[in-house]
Structure formats: structure tokens, C-alpha cells
Amino acid sequence: MISRGASGGLSGRRDSMREIIESRDWSRTPLGAKKNWPPSLQTVMAIVLGSSQPMVVVWGEQRLALYNDRFADLVVGRRFRAVGSPLFDIWPGSDDELAAIVERGFEGESTLAAESPRFSVPDGGGENLHFLCDCTPVPDAAGGVGGLLITVVETSATSVDSAAKGEFRHLDAVLASTEDFIYVFDREGKYTYANSALLRRLSDQLGLDLREILGMSFTELGYPPERVEKYERELKTVFDTGEPVRSEEVSVLPGGEVRQYEYIFTPVFGDDKEVEAVVGITRDVTELRDTAAALKRSESLYEALFESVEQGIGVVEVWSTNGANGGSTDFRWLEVNRAFEELSNINDPVGKRGREVSPRIAEFWFEIYRDVVRSGESVQFENYDEDVGRWFDVRAVPVGSNESRLVALIFTDITERKRREENAALLAELHDQLTRLADSAEIKHRVGDAVARHLDLSRVVFARLDQESDLIENSHDWRKEGMKSAAGDHKLSRFMGEEMLGQLSAGEAVMIDDVNSDRRTAERADAYREFDIRSMILVPHLSGGQWRFFTAICDDRQRTWRADELELMCELTERLWWRLERAYAEEALREVNRRKDRFLAVLSHELRNPLAPIELSLQLLESTSLDSDEGRRVRQVIARQVKQLTRLVDDLLDVNRINSEKIHLKIDSVELNELTRHTVQDHLILFDEAGITLEFNPGQGPVRVRGDRNRIAQVIGNILQNAMKFTSSGEQTVVSVSADSAEGCAEIRIRDTGTGMDPETTTSLFDPFVQADASLEHSVGGLGLGLALVKGLVELHDGTVFARSEGLGRGSEFVVRLPLEASESEPSFEEFPDEKHDVSRKILVIDDNPDVAELLRRVLELRGHLVEVVHDGSTGIEKAREWMPDAVICDIGLPGMNGYEIAGAMSDDPELQSIQLIALSGYAGAEDIEKSRRAGFEHHLAKPPNIEKLDELLS
Questions:
Q1: How far is 540 from 549, CA to CA, in rounded Å?
Q2: How far apart are CA 496 and CA 499, in angstroms?
Q3: What would the pLDDT profile of 542-582 be if each residue is shown by its tens digit?
Q4: What is the pLDDT of residues 751-784, one digit of tens each?
Q5: Which of 243, 161, 231 is nearest to 189 (CA)?
Q6: Which uninterrupted H or E stretch holds 121?
Q7: Alpha carbon separation from 770 to 618, 661, 717, 756, 860 (Å, rounded)
Q8: pLDDT in tens, 224-255
Q9: Cα–Cα distance for residue pair 919/892, rounded to 1 Å
Q10: Minimal CA–CA distance to 784: which of 683, 682, 662, 655?
Q11: What is the pLDDT, as a whole number, of residue 534?
Q12: What is the DSSP letter of 509?
């Protein structure tokens, strides 16, 4: 035997393996810094360094050897400083069988000493040392095999040549130091050998003297029956088959402590190849299993947490070519969770270099990793990844010491938050602009441009609509350069079916990712393709419970719209249309004020025009006889100008009546051909004087409508007067009548070859106080009320009217459409009487204006009536009682007793009740007429009176 004394070296003292391992800088070795060793490696090393049994830990792919003092003395020839070197470099004499055991161990297979071959190493004195090896796998942090724990059992002093010969006494000296239980059974199942550890345990448990144990069987030792049966059955199997049996058990010690054991029964063969004895080895694996179980639980918990968190987590190993001075840096992915792969769009990066996984990776990532490793401090920042189009909050955290060069990355997806922040910033910016801007067109342009740039759109539409008219009014749309404009009016039904209309009418926004495939738009995809619209969001705005407006953002690509984009447009639409409605109202008010100012200027002009010749004519009459030719011409001038003034006042009153819905129609069956022919004939003289050809083309057969013949004639007359104003001498106006039975309407078309109109004029032509051209050099008279009257009167007949023109200088056409009469009926009286019959009547005129009263007397007397005039109410009533007139024409505004009081008094007087009462006043509104009727007047005429109407009332 070789002396096991220590070698002191030069100092006479040798460092222990514990001191050597603790003092060495392992960070420069493949094992890395000791504090970063896996928990399993640190645990097993604590066991190895605390044991007197020769033990070695073999770790990693390089099979690095970490051993204790006993192993260094016994096996590797005191090579204490060789610790950490590959096992087969420091144990060169080991044979292939040991290598096989090691490799099987790394595959997860353990080997007990009893079943291992014997190994030999030279002891330096010409002899060999012989060993048995017990090999147990040790798990790593990932759950695989990280290394092996090998316990060496020396058999050199007394070899076991034959268990049956009982030559195990010297083996006890070798096995005494191990904590494992080592024992031998003979064929009768009795202990023939037990090492010190087992003897002590049995003595403690059974209370027997150590010497009494050998030679006893399980039953004699008082083992529980179930355990006796199990052991005997297993021993019999070994003796019968010659195969080892491996098993495990749990024992409860006298103090109640529970321990776990693994054991193996191995056959010992004699010279006759028969099993003569069985060697058993039992190992207490309680701590190892507890450690492994805890490690497994920890790893399971870690894995569960690692994979369940929403954040992306990855661990990288960083290295640089020249350390502290920077240089080229790269890293290797060590671990990532599923969320990381999903968020980063990087698949299966583990084990690969950073530049290999992401060739276009930005250099700043390497700088961040390098800085974290150098400083040992965490870094947090926000980053936008263009490849996946998302924002991340990133934390780069050092793992372990600086020597580990590990960095953990924690990615949190903050895309939704960033988008909402950007959307909020856009809304704030637009709010400032909406507050400052007043022009609706400028508002829509600014908003459209900002939203299109923010969301990368090809088109933004702002539209009003009229569902009853099936019309979209798109006054403005922002679009990419080169795209067709969608501005103008469009049929609503061309773009939307019932389902989409229902959603929008209910105030629900509509998102279309692809107009070609969405069921709501597929049948109308051609209409969208005309304007390069592939996807869109439409957000309605309801006003008064009705869908009035909408905003549409569009793209020429298929697009999956996001929730934040929809939220942005809903919020923006609410703000935008609130501001636009106010802008529209302000613009309308400005337009009303502009038209009012223009109207007052035109009214002044139009009133002064007839007043000037009237005033001059009156001056001529002072020096001219009424019966002379000059007098007759002067009277004609006055009559024409008074008629012009009357027409201006009537137009004003009619527009007011229509707007206040107080005009009343006398509905009858009207034959349009005949009515239009008479109206054209009435205007023929005026057109001839202007040198304009006026033609009439009647429809085929009778064309009947239900309406007020006088108002329809007024509609035709107003359009003809408008045509005459804007048509020059030598040009032409054509009036035609037709019936469309399929549409159920009659049409009156008036086409001229005059100055024409631009598109902007046609949209506002029928508004009050609007003229096609109001400049001084082109002024043709009128208040701009004629066409407003036309529109109002036509709509009262449930009809429509519109104008169109191919442009300035290309003439205009007005089209009036009225519903055809459901069935033919004869008119209740003649539409156009050929003549009037004068009837001489006694008429009393009551008016405080002497000029008006005397002029009215002269007019009535010329028509053959007997006329008396008084200038106040009381005198008028006395005159009526005295003279008993057939009719009284009475002014309203009289001194003392007004017209209403006169009518009341005469209505209450039985003697005067038969007299016809006719009111004459400058006030001729619906309220004035109704008030006159209640006072007792039968009729109400406006000043100056229409003589033909007066004749009709007096006839």
C-alpha cells in the first residue's frame, strides 16, 4: 500500500481543494464565474468537497473534472492544480470502459460500483491501484444532464476474488469511509458482510450489537414481513437469473425522519460461473432528490412564468473583439420566450448570432448591449421596429456579474398607447386649427391633409347627404396627386346598399377592409374603383336624429383597419361636423347679409327707375291736356311704370307668403298646352320689342295637371322674363310642353340661346335675391326674386324645377316638372274668358289721401261707375246711410275711425249690411287679409289696386 501522506511542497503546506476551487478565477474558463454556476453544480460540489470518499464531478461538453482532496491523493497523483481540466487529460490511464460509463452517464444512465468494472492506475511505486466507480448524472438548469458525480471505491488492498470464500474482511477498510450501505448476502439470504455505515444504522434501528448482525437473515433481524418478502424475492431473482436488480424504498427512522434510498443487488460469480453471493449497495438519495425536485419545481415555475408573460423576454450572450476599447460587437441568443418571437417576428433564434438572425439589425443594439455589460446597469428606452410596424418599451438588464456578459431583454408592446398618444396629439393640433379657421373649405382641406398624412391615406371625403333625394353632396375631398376628384353630387344608392345604409342611418361607423370582398360593397365595387377606393372607414354624424353628414377615410390598397383608427375618426368627425355646422351657419349668415345688401341696392335701383319717369310724366301733365296725344303718351308711361312697381311689390309679397307657408292655391284641372300657349302669347309683344324669337311647341294631345292656373302661368311668365333679360336681340327662346306617362309627370321646358351660366350659378339660382350677373354694365333689372318664386310655387304643386347650362355663352334651359292628373276632368269654368262686361255701380271711396281718392274716382268713373269720395270714417258712414252705395272701397289707416272699425260698424248696421265692403291698404300680407276678413271686409286689395282685379270684384 502507498502512504497517503500530504505533500507539503516548498512551504511544507498544501492548499486544500476547497481553497483552490474558491480562490481560482473561473470566469476565464468554460465553466464561467463560480457564482454563476448552476445550482445543481454548486450543490454537488458542496457534497464532494465535504466528503472523505474519493469523488470527482465531470461537467459539460469538455468533461471538465472538479474533485476533492481524497480523489487528488488516490487517483490523479496529487495533481491538485489540475482541477478544472478535462477528465481524461488528468487520468490518462483510464480505459475505454470508463469512457463508456461517462458517456452513458451523460445520456442519463447511472452506474453503481458493484456493477462497474475494475480500473487501475499506477501508484508511482511499481504497483497498481484498483478501483470501482459509482456514477450518478447531475441535472443542469435546463433539465438535461449537466455533469456526473463519480465516487471511487478502491479495491487494491484486498481484492474480492470470491464472495463464497468470505474474503471481504479487508474490503471494509476501503468501504468504511463511504456513507453508502455496502453488504453481501449468501445463498441463504444472510448477511455475510456489512460496511460500517450499514452496521451502525442496523444497530441503531434494531438495538443489536454490531457483531450480532452478520449471519442473520431479514426475518431474524425483525424486518417487516412485506419488506422481507420483497427482498427475498429480489435476491432469488439475482441468484436464479444472474442479472442485477435495481430498486428503491422509503424508510422511517426511529425519530420519525423519512429517508429515500436507491439500492442494487448484483451477482458474484464463482469459478463454476454460478452465482455464489450477492453484493448490495444502498444509497441515501433524500437530499439529491429533494434538490432535484426543488430544482425541477423551480425550473417548471420559471418556464411557466417565462412562457406565460405578455412581455417578450430574451437572453443574449455578448462579446466584443477588443474589450473595453469597443470594437466589433456581436451576441448570441441563449433563450427567448414565445411572446418574444411573436412580437419581434424572429423565429427560432436560440443558438444563433445576432447578425445571423437579423442581417439589417441597427448598430445601436450592439452599443446598448456593450454598455450594459460594461456598466452593469440596466437601460430602458422606447423603440419603433419598422419591420413589424410596432412600438416597444425595452429594458436591457445585466444578468450575473460582468464576466458572464449576459443581457436580458424585456420587450413590452406599447404600440396601442403610442398610437393613441399620437392620435391625441393630432386632435389637439386640429382643435387649435378648427378654433382659428372660419372658412368651411379651408377647414376641410386642413383636416383632410393632416389626417391623410397621419394615417397614410389616399383619399379623405367630407360629405353632406339627402337620403330622400338619394344624393351625396361631396363639396371637398383630399386625395393623392394624380387621383380623380370625387367632388360633386353622387347618387347615394350607387355606393351603398340597404345594409350599409341601415348601419350609417343608425349612427354606426362602417369599416370596409376590401370593397371587392365585403358583402356590403361587393356588388358596387365598380363605383368605388372609379375613384381608386379599395378600403375605407365611413363615420356618420346624426343631426336631430337624422343622418346628415359623414367622413370617409379611404385607401387604394386592401387594408385591415385598426380600432384606434376608428376611434380617431369617430372623435374627429364629432368635432369636425360641429365646427363645420357652425362655419356653414356663419357662411350662410354672411351670404344672407351679402344678398341683403345687394338686394337693397337693387331694390333702390329698381324703385328709382319707375319713379323717375313717373315724376317727369307728372311734370309734363301740368302743361299738357290729358286728352291730347301727348297726354295719352304720358298716361301710358305712368301706367307702365306703376305696373312695374306693382310687380316688384307683388313679388316681394309672394316670396314672403311662400316662405311663411301662407299662400293658398286654387286647385283645378289645368290643360298645360293651352295655358302655356296663352302665357307665351302674353309675352310675345315684349319678346318682339326685344328682337328675340319666341316659339312654342305643344305636347301631343292634352297634358293635364292639378294646380292653380294663375300660379302656373306666373311660373312660366317669370322664367320667360328671366330668359328675355339674358338673351340678346336676334337670338331665340323655345317653350315646349310634353308628358312622360312612365314617370307620371308633365314637363315645361324653356330653352334660350342667351348668355348661359357657370355651374356655380345653377346651384344657387333659385335662392332669393340671387341674380346671374349683378354688375352695373350687365344689370338687366329685377330683384332676384322671380326664380325664387318659381321654385316655391312649383314645390307647392309637388313639382320640381332645375336649370342647366353648358357654360357661359351657350344658353340655358329651365325644366319644370309637375305631376300628371290622375284622371281627366273638365275645368269648372272657362280658363280664359274672352271679354269683361262693364256694369255701372254706385261706389263710395273712403281714403284720407286726396290724391289717391281723386285718382281712384277718375279711374272708376271712366269705367262708367258713379263715385262719391269722403276722407274720414264717420263721414263715410253718414254718406253710406244717405246714399246707399253698392260698394264701399275703404282705406285701413284713417284718422279717428280706422277701416276695421268702419267695416265693423257697417256690418252691425242692418241697413248697411248689404253693401259690398272692399279694403284698400298698403299692407297686404296674409295676416292683414285675415284681419280684414274678421272685421267684415269681403275683399282686400293692395295699393296701388290692380284695376283688372277691381273690375272683377265690381262686376
A1: 6
A2: 8
A3: 877 788 888 899 999 999 999 888 999 888 888 887 787 78
A4: 999 888 876 666 667 776 555 553 333 344 455 6
A5: 231
A6: strand 119-122
A7: 34, 21, 18, 15, 39
A8: 888 889 999 999 999 999 898 888 887 777 66
A9: 7
A10: 655
A11: 95
A12: -
Say if residue 523's pLDDT is above 60: yes
Q: Which residues of 525-537 are buried (b: 16+ CB within 10 A; e: fewer)?
A: bebbeebbbbbbb
Query: First and final CA of the chain: distance in angstroms?
Result: 163
- CA 492, 493, 494, 499: dihedral to nearest 10 degrees? 110
Percent of the chain that is helix, strand, coil (3-state, to 5)? 40, 25, 35
Crossing angle of helices 415-436/440-455, nearest 10°? Answer: 160
Tell me which range, 514-518, 593-597, 612-616, is most confidently predicted by mean pLDDT: 514-518
- Lowest pLDDT segment from 219-228, 404-413, 414-423, 771-780: 771-780
Q: Grid coordinates in use for 687?
A: 319678346
Phi then psi for 892, rounded to 5 degrees? -90, -50
334: helix, strand or coil = strand
Q: How far apart are CA 195 and CA 202, in angstroms?
A: 11
Environment class of residue 243 by beta-carbon count within 10 Å: exposed (0-12), middle (13-18) or buried (19+)?
A: exposed
pLDDT-derived band at 630, boundaries 50, 70, 90: confident
Angle, in degrees to the nearest 10, between helices 786-796 and 709-725: 150
Output the pLDDT for position 837: 42
Element (H, E) at 214: none
pLDDT, the chain, mean: 79
Please confirm whether the linkage preceding 944 is cis (ω < 30° from 0): yes
Grid cell of 802 as nine digits = 332645375
Q: Where do we find the cell 315684349? A: 686
Q: Collapse the DSSP code of 380 into the 3-class scheme (helix H, G, I; strand E, B; otherwise coil) and give the result.
A: strand
Contact call for residues 277 and 185 (beta carbons, < 8 A): yes
Furthest-apart CA atoms within the chain: distance in Å: 178
CA torsion angle for 15, 19, 25, 29 (degrees, to 10)? 80
Instruction: Report the distance separating Cα 753 and Cα 763, nearest Å.
Output: 20
Q: Which residue has the higher pLDDT, 651 or 891?
A: 891
In the numeric block, which cell numbers belong to residue 762? Answer: 345653377
Are the C-beta atoms of residues 925 and 653 closer than 8 Å to each other? yes
Find the DSSP H helices in 376-484: 415-436, 440-455
- Alpha-carbon gap, residue 599 to 784, rounded angstroms: 8
What cell numbers appear for 705 in the block? 295637371
Closest Cα to residue 842, out of 884, 789, 811?
A: 884
Classify the C-alpha dihedral 533-534-537-543 as positive or negative. positive
Task: For residue 355, give every residue at least 6 positions away whose Cβ sits within 8 Å of its Cβ, in sequence order, or none.
Answer: 330, 361
Give a three-class secondary structure readout of 592-653: HHHHHHHHHHHHHHHHHHHHHHHHHHHHHHCCCCCCCHHHHHHHHHHHHHHHHHHHHHHHHH
Residues making up the chain, counted from first to last: 955
Q: Nearest CA to 155 among 166, 136, 170, 143?
A: 170
Question: With contact defined as beta carbons under 8 Å apart, do 791 and 815 qualify?
Answer: no
Task: Write a three-state SS string for 553-576.
Answer: EEECCCCCCCHHHHHHHHHHHHHH
Cα 478 to Cα 647: distance, rounded to the nearest angstrom? 47
Q: Which amino acid is at 138?
A: V
Q: Cell digits for 484?
A: 380623380
**Residue 937: pLDDT above 90?**
yes
Q: Are 859 and 947 in contact (CB under 8 A)?
A: yes
